[in-house]
Amino acid sequence: MASLPPVVVANTLKLDSEFRKLSAPPLPLEKRSYTPKEPNSMSSDLKESVSSVGEGNRKLESSHYFPILQECMLQNSVSGVESVHCQIIKSGFGEELFLMTFLVNVYAKCWEMGSARKVFDNLPKRNAVAWTSLISGYIYNSRPELAVGIFNEMLEAGVCPTNYTLGVVLNACTSLCDFNLAKQIHGYIVKHDLACDSSIGNALCSLYSRCRNLALAISVFENIEEKDVISWTAVVSACGDNGNSAKGLAMFVKMLVGGVEPNEITLTSVLSLCCTMQALDAGSQVHSLIIKLGYGSDLRLTNSIMYLYLKSGCISEAKKLFFGMSSISLVTWNAMIAGYAEMISLAEDALSAYLCGIEALQIFQQMNRLGLRPDLYTFSSLFSVCSSLVALEQGEQFHAPTIKTGFLSDVIVATALVNMYNKCGSINQASKAFLEMSTRTLISWTSMITAFAQHGLSEQALHVFEDMRRVGVRPNKITFVGVLSACSQAGMVDQAFAYYEMMKNEYRINPVMDHYACLIDMFVRLDRIDEAFDFIKKENLIPNEFIWSILIAGCRSKGKLELAFHAAEQLLELEPKDSETYLLLLNMYVSAGRWKDVSRVRKMMRDAKVDKIVDWSWISIQNKVHSFKFSSKKHHQDELTELLDDLIERAKPLGYKAETALEIDGEEKEEATTTSATAHHSEKMAVAFGLINTSGKVEIRVTKSTGMCRDCHSFIKIVSLLTSRTVIIRDSKRLHKFHKGECSCKDFGGLV
DNA sequence: CTAGGGTTAG
Fold first, then answer.
1. Is residue A633 included in any domain, yes or no?
2. Which residue of A86, A314, A570, A689 is 20 to 30 Å from A327, comparing CA positions?
3. CATH code, A558
């Protein structure tokens, strides 16, 4: 960078010495790029004014051209600008600095940088404003690297940058992650005490935010002498971008108290904070404010509010907005689809989750019927919906369009695709999609590692992890959950602890319960239960519900019933809130015939107001989803129960011993359990339905609302053997892939 | 005449 001449900006504030330490661990944040709009045709009014400009050789003042150029710019009419440009030349204003500078700006805003550049090059004299126009033009056209080049040319030409120039160039650095240049400019700003200027201060605030230094971003904001709406908006979104939404909301309140009126951009930022915080109250207050300030029909704001309502589960409010909107954009449809997709994970029970998924797909169909082309946001939401529904066929149908449209090259879409294949149990398609990705983020790598681990393919999981390290992607704690669970499933004790140490020492990640749970699960699988307890003692762990459940399930399957009951008592002392935990305990006591304990647990459930457990299963066949609910009533002798009974009979000689499990369907049942109780668990029926309605070697995919019970698990293992079919069941805890009589969870899938 | 902030996604 050429040396900077002094800048003419008044300044009084001293910079905090903190500012001198611009530590920039650049966290690559992909900035969304603009999509140039198609040039528009002019409105009839505009056409008239453009043609009247040259009429009758009237001699116009140069100032007359500004409003009409502005109108052309607003209407994005390149041809309008061009014909006005011609008139300007004809009238002899072609060298007027102010007018030509404005024209540079106008061409830039119409995505015509070539013309903007030509106008600039023809200027006989260029002042700082002209240079700044060109620089900002390149930034507007998503070419920050060219903007920085022009900035250097400007300095070489000996033109002194203004505060605007510095602000613009700093923003270019921010979007380029060019922290070297930023540092030089920063030094210059510090030396000349310019940080209190709002154009510079705002840019610094964004820069620090991008450097993940929220404290600095805030302190630079505090030092801005005249904080305007944009300063406030910048600091509010800086808080949001750095994971401190509460601080952002507080800043927004401060802004209001200070009497600064937010504009629609501030309000969108605030709504996005409310969204991540799930702050429905604050959100609806902002909604009222929006209406009060007259932004009630702003499309972008309405989209955000609608999404917020959906994400908070206020479907009726969201729908009211949706149907009340006078115009709807693709973003509106996407927000609806994404909102319903989001509600799947927030749903209280599996049935409503399933209904949300169906609704999301129906909204997409409506959008499709209206002829709207989906974009990358649409596709990533759709993939996420399909994975929740375990609707492989649907998901596959969206794969090809993402290739054709090129959206698959987006890393988020591609990751969503990998995830979809994984969650639908198709690990081969998942890994194929992963290998075809051109760029991978931490999340892509982590998804693939977790996917292999979930399918019991530990070696592949660890292989991917090593590849990830090799290319220099830094794992996070979720990555290590995947790695440790891979080791745990394969019983690789030494490796597990090696990775555990690596996580703590090399990556400075503090272990959380999920990590401990993997290691404990590993000891339990290896029937080294003493070591599991030793580990708990050594790490001073206070086991949570989850860890006790692992211990119980492990002790049970190893036949160590006394230990299992001991663990169960510990678990009960925690007064669990999770209904499935109670289901595990109930089943345990039922199979041991300990009826007193059964009623004790039932009483605890009532006291804890735990949700009733509703056993649903779904199977998607030819894009239609069929659902089954557990029913203890004896079914009619239809085709389905006939097949089921037949399978049960054929399974018995192969070692299937129907275990007792409790009947749970919401109503209190008699405590007596018989084998017929588990015979009609919903997943058995869904699998039987799949066997009847598909043929050949088609894999059967079922989703289930609760955890699988041990009885169904061992039954379906045998079914996969008897029928030579692969059966994939995703229950509330994990994925079970049954193949040739084995399950990918190796019988430690947290069965109840 | 030049700037600066923003919706929906894994």
1. yes
2. A314
3. 1.25.40
If you measure CA to C1', which residue is closest to nucleotide B9?
A377
DSSP helix/strand/coil, A608: coil
Give domain status of residue A258, yes or no.
no
Distance of C1' in B3 from CA in A301, Å = 24
Of A611, A633, A650, the residue at which a domain comes to its end is A611
pLDDT, tens digit, for every residue of A400-413? Answer: 999 999 999 999 99
Q: Is A702 helix (H, G, I), strand (E, B) or coil?
A: strand
Q: Which of residues 19-78 of A touch strand B (CB under 7 A)?
A: 32, 66
Q: For residues A585 and A628, state if they share a domain.
A: no
pLDDT exceeds 90 at position A505:
yes
Instruction: Examine residue A222 and state whether it is found in any structural domain, yes or no.
Output: no
User: Measured from the CB, is A268 under 7 Å from any atom of strand B?
Assistant: yes
Nearest nt to the CA of A32 via C1' is B6
Number of domains in chain A: 2
Q: How many CA atoms lie within 13 A of A106 on its CB side?
A: 27
Does residue A28 register a pLDDT over 50? no
CA torsion through residues A179, A409, A474, A481, sign: positive
Domain extent at residue A653: 617-743
pTM across the whole model = 0.81
Using 50, 70 and 90 to split pLDDT, how confident is the model at A676? very low
**How far is it, in rounded angstroms, from Cα A550 to Cα A752?**
10
Cβ partners under 8 Å of residue A447, min gap 6: A415, A418, A419, A422, A434
Distance A164 CA to B9 C1' (A): 34
Task: Express each pLDDT in A630-670 by its tens digit.
Answer: 765 555 557 788 888 888 888 888 888 776 555 444 444 44
Query: Both A595 and A626 in a single domain?
Result: no
Signed CA dihedral, A532, A534, A538, A541: sign only: positive
Is the CB atom of residue A120 positioned under 7 angstroms from any atom of strand B? Answer: no
Looking at residue A640, what is its pLDDT?
Answer: 80
Please state whether strand B lies within 7 Å of residue A231 at its CB atom: yes
Chain A 305-334 residues whose Cβ is under 7 Å from strand B: 307, 330-331, 334
Segment holding A420, helix H or strand E: helix A411-423
A407 CA – B1 C1', rounded, Å: 40
pLDDT in tens, A3-22: 444 433 322 223 333 334 44
A344 touches strand B (CB under 7 A): no
CA of A360 to C1' of B1 (A): 49
